[in-house]
Backbone:
């Protein structure tokens, strides 16, 4: 009894719990990604879309927790990429396959496969570019895979809204439209088009206040009218990068009609060895 009284009970190591926390969010991301695939296979496409959205929320949290607690590791980065390939690559592609392409023959699964390939290439390139980066950039190179995956997944809830059925049904955005959307998302992911990161929330600067307002808008709209909000938000983000890239290309293009300026005051030099 005296020996037992003198024995100190080890206290839980909070530092280890903090290190494990980002990976726990990442595995939660994987859980919802797998659940989305299972739900799509069972024909529950609406909840499959929301599970991809839940995976996106956890994907955002694991990175922020790792940065705030300074517990980011190479293992965590690799785990995050593997999970993102499933939650934002395989899961949205399977939702589209079971929704529209199951009866399309070989063409259907090839389109889904091409989208997944683009997600994997996007994540591999991101890992290579982020290795050894001195300071994080405020821009993504290529459309982020979570944005592409969530935009693709939430198309179905948006297509079931009364506004879509009454105002946009004439567009016939069914199989052909989804093929175009998947191709555009795939191309933008592997492109070099710059996409901005969402602003960080804060209260000390104007930028922080704008970030807070943006997060509050997403939160309120996401909780009240998610089926109306998330797909248009994803399309707006997609188009923003394309329009910005086009405008920058036009601004930087040299004017071919402007003649070269020749200084007549300086005579041409002879070929002197």
Residues:
């Amino acid at each position: 009894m005296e020996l037992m009284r003198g024995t100190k009970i080890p206290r839980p190591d909070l530092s280890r719990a903090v290190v494990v926390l980002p990976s726990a969010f990442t595995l939660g991301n994987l859980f919802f990604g797998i659940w989305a695939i299972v739900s799509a296979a069972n024909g529950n496409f609406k909840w499959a879309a929301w599970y991809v959205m839940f995976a996106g929320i956890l994907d955002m949290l694991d990175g922020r927790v790792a940065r705030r607690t300074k517990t980011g590791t190479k293992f965590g980065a690799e785990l995050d990429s593997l999970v993102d390939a499933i939650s934002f690559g395989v899961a949205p592609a399977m939702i589209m396959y079971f929704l529209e392409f199951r009866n399309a023959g070989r063409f259907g699964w090839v389109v889904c496969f091409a989208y997944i390939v683009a997600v994997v290439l996007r994540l591999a390139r991101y890992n290579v570019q982020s290795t050894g980066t001195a300071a994080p950039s405020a821009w993504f190179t290529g459309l982020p895979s979570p944005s592409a995956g969530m935009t693709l997944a939430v198309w179905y809830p948006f297509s079931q809204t009364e506004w879509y059925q009454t105002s946009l049904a004439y567009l016939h955005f069914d199989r052909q439209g989804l093929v175009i959307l998947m191709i555009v998302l795939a191309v933008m992911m592997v492109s070099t088009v710059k996409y901005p990161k969402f602003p960080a929330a804060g209260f000390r600067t104007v930028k922080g206040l704008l970030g807070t307002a943006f997060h509050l808008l997403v939160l309120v709209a996401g909780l009240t009218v998610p089926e109306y909000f998330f797909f248009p938000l994803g399309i707006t983000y997609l188009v923003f990068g394309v329009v910005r890239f086009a405008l920058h290309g036009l601004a930087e293009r040299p004017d071919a009609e402007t003649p070269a300026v020749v200084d007549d005051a300086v005579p041409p030099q002879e070929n002197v060895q």
